[in-house]
Amino acid sequence: MRIIFFISFCLIKIGVLSQSSTYNFTNYSTAQGLPDNNIQSVTQDTRSFLWIGTKEGLSRFDGK
Fold it and tell me: N or C: which terminus of the chain carries fewer CB neighbours within 10 A?
């Protein structure tokens, strides 16, 4: 009986911990320097820069 209780407890804890993850994100728009609010494409180069393509132009993002 103790083994069943222990296994049940562990499974419940794993479920609770996996659901409590939070994700932080930041929205960028023309107010922060993007040429347009509609992003058409995103790619990352070998130096880890993100290149963001919009209909109004191209932006390079360095993570800061």
Answer: C
